[in-house]
Amino acid sequence: MKPLRALCGGELPRLVMFDLDGTLIDSVPDLAEAVDRMLVELGRAPAGVEKVRDWVGNGARVLVRRALAGDLEHAAVGEAETEEALARFLDIYADCHNLTALYPGVHELLEALSTAAVELAVVTNKPERFVAPLLEQVGLGGYFRWIIGGDTLPQQKPDPAALLQVMHLAGVEAAQALFVGDSRNDVLAARAAAVPCVAVSYGYNHGRPIVEEQPSLVVDSLVELL
Predict the structure, then answer these.
(1) Which residues does UniProt call coiled coil (predicted)?
(2) Are 79 and 86 in contact (CB under 8 A)?
(3) How far apart are CA 118 and CA 211, in angstroms?
(4) What is the β-pairing status of strands 217-219 and 197-200?
(5) Out of 19, 26, 36, 186, which one is annotated catalytic?
(6) What is the pLDDT of the chain when averaged over all its residues?
């Protein structure tokens, strides 16, 4: 695990925290299905997978607002409209998990870290109630000691609160921890928590190359960390 040791002062990290969507799992096909069904029920045209791929990463509420706006910018969308659409989206998405799949290399890395007794956590902006069932569905249910969802704490990434909370629970200093994500929010949260950040190149960073965010390391597959 040479890259991991290089990021943590020559030692394996004691704690590795992972983003979920776009990092461990490709959930966009299911999210797009739920978004499109929501939009059609509201009398609007469906958005399609490629647009939804650029809209995800900031939690369900922002995804719904972007879908209603038809754009990344969603300031003009009203709160009442958002609440109605969000409730419908969450109900639909609860039954839309058939197309979500693991990215290559994820299981290999998690198995190696688990074998090395490295503590593992998920820190995501996805609503918490969806996270554990999704992890179970894709075969990752037994790996993570802590799960922090987008509604677990008052703050969401890019705020570092969730990362700081997990480090506190684990009794781990920032120099002994690592965060793995795919988006600007992930890099900013890790930077604010003073934690090295590995970013994957295949994720959902709103259509922008993740290297622009200057993470500690960019990989094309998580097996590159081994």
Answers:
(1) none
(2) no
(3) 26
(4) parallel
(5) 19
(6) 96
Per-residue pLDDT of 46-66, as tens digits, reads 999 999 999 998 889 999 999
Is 30 one of the annotated binding-site residues? Answer: no
Tell me the CB-side half-sphere exposure of residue 158, using CA atoms within 13 A.
13
Among the listed residues 154, 148, 191, 149, the one whose alpha carbon sits nearest the alpha carbon of residue 166? 148
| 44, two tokens | 């609007």
Q: Which amino acid is at 147?
A: I
Residue 11's CB: how many other CB atoms inside 10 A? 11
Q: List helix spans (H) across the chain.
A: 2-7, 28-41, 49-55, 60-69, 79-93, 106-115, 128-137, 161-170, 184-192
pTM: 0.94
- pLDDT, residue 80, reads 95
10-34 pLDDT tens trace: 999 999 999 999 999 999 999 999 9
Q: Tell me, yes or no, if 95 is annotated catalytic.
A: no
Residue 186 counted as an annotated binding residue: no
Of the candidates 166, 162, 96, 105, the one whose C-alpha atom is nearest the C-alpha of residue 134 is 96
Could you tell me how far CA 106 lies from the centroid of its own chain? 14
The tokens describing 5, both together, are 């040791």
